[in-house]
Amino acid sequence: MKDMPLSNPPERTLTKRSLTARDSHVRDFLLQQGFLPAGAESYPLFRDFEGMGRLSELTPTVSTIWALSFNEIYKMIEGHLVTAFFFEGMEPYFEIKAPRSNTAILLKQVIDTLYNFAIGAGLSALRVYAVEEIFLEEFKNIEGYEVSAEYSDDHSEYAYRPADIVNLSGGVNHKKSTHLNKFIGRDGITFTPMTNENHRLCLDIEKEWCTHQDCAECSAFAGCELKALEIMTDIYDDHFYEGLFGYVDGVLSGFIIWEKRNEGRAYLHFGKGNIQNFFVYLIYILAKDKLPEEIKFLNINEDMGKEGLRRFKKHLGAHELWRKYLCTFVKKEA
Fold this sequence. Notes:
- By secondary structure, this protein is α+β, with helices and mostly antiparallel strands.
- It contains 12 helices and 14 strands.
- It is globular and about 70 Å long.
C-alpha cells in the first residue's frame, strides 16, 4: 500500500491541501452526485455512526478534525455513511460506516453504487479504506468483484494496555524510563482538567510549538495539525472527551486529549509538550491515573512509517498493531 501521510503541525496557510487535476475532477463529479463537504458541521451526523470498531481511523472525531486536510466529502447511501478522501500523492478512496442498528445486508448495494461513481469519475477501480480485520471477509466476499486487500505495518495502529505504558522495568521500557526520570517525583508539576470553559488553551501550546517547526517539513504529513486542533476545539464537549493540562513551575507546558469509547477502548486524539519528553509524561499520567479500570487498550494511531514517530511509539512500551486494510474492487467480466 502506498505511504499515506500522517499529522505533524506546521504554521502555514490553513486551507485544504491542493488537488491534482484528476482528483479535482473526481471530487467535483462526486459533489454533482450529492456528496457534501465534511467538517465540524457534519460532526453530529458522523457521531451517529459510531460503530464497535477498534480503529482510531474510523472514529467520527478523526473523520471530522482532518476533513479539511483530506478534502473530505460525504453522502448517505443505503443508510450507510460514505466518506470520500483526497490527498496529495494518494489515490482517492472511500470509507464506509454502517448504521448502528443495521441488520440488513446492504453492503453490496453500497459497493455497487460506489463502484459506479468511481468508474463514472474516471477511476480505474473502487478503493475502500480503512477496513478493520474483523470485517475483512465481508468486504472480500462481495459478489461480482475481484477484491484485493492490502495492509502495512506502517499504517497499523498502536494499541497499549495501560499497565504496559506505566511499566518502567526491563529493556523494552529503558528509553521511556530515561525520558520520565526528569519528571517523576519532581516538585512543581501540576495538572488541570480540560473543560468546556478552558479547552481552547491547548491552542496556545500548539501555536508555541509551531513557531519552532519547519513548515515545509510539516507539510509532508497529513496537513496542518493546528487547523485540525482548531476544529477539535469547535467540537469539544466534555461529555465525550477528556483532557488534561500540565504545568511546570506554574507555566502551561503541555496538554493531552483523549476519548473513551466502546468495548473498553480509549483513543488519544491530540497531545503536545513544549518541554522535551513532557508529552511522554502526560501519556504516562493518563495511563496511570486517568483511565478507568474498564479501559483495556489505549489506541494512539499509526506511525506512518516515519522513523522518529515509530521510535516514539515503540518506546512507550509493549503494544499491539491493529491492522487496517485497503480493499480494491474491480468488476468481474461477465
